[in-house]
Predict the 3D structure of the following.
Amino acid sequence: MPKQISGINKIFVFLASCLAGFLIIAALINYVLLFFDNLTPVTHGAISTSVLMLVVAVPLLSWVIYLQGKIGSHRREMNRLASHDRLTGLPTAGAFASMLDLKLNEGAEADKSAGAFLMVRVTVPQSAYSKYGYMANEEVVSLTAAKIMSEVRSTDLVGRISPDMFAVYLSGADEEEARQIGNRMLLVSSNIDVETEKSESAFNVRVGGISFDDKLSIEDMFQKAGSQLTSSESSEPLIFSNMSGYPTAAAAI
């Protein structure tokens, strides 16, 4: 409430200052015009009115444009906050799917449908939860997101699609490149230093991925990569499959 009152007071002072300024300007204009004896009352009034309107309109128009810019900036920031994860700054599941759909359509139009799709899951041990609470998970998720972003290219897309899962779209990447990126993600994520005791700070990172030459639907990408991720839970930390043509058997790395 005090902030609202303060804001209202500032607006009132601004309006009062503008009114006083306009009255002073009007008085000065009329005073100057008194020295022109050849002006008729009609001409005098027209000039006075025109100048006063110009003096009033320019700052008001500038103020309106400024306010519109501020409103647009705040609206864009609100939209960004609503579509991006608070902790990592990455797109949420819905925003990621929309951005991915746009990238896939752009690639199809440019006849560049090849790429790869990875899903990364990070699991914090229950012992860390018991001792440090949700802060342990937040720290691991935040650091993992930073490490993943450090391994992808500027043309790639990364999103946090669930509390413990990330999705990565590698635009134009072939199978070998996608495998290398997936392995680097595992390597850097496994070396994260968490502010807990060593015996309780170990966490599990798994990656499942696919590569493809032709455009896949978003649903197929999530389904196929999710299946690889599930397979990695009981075997190697990274399971990758080439989906070009027909699905092939998963290859463990």
Remarks:
- Residues 41-83 form the longest helix (43 residues).
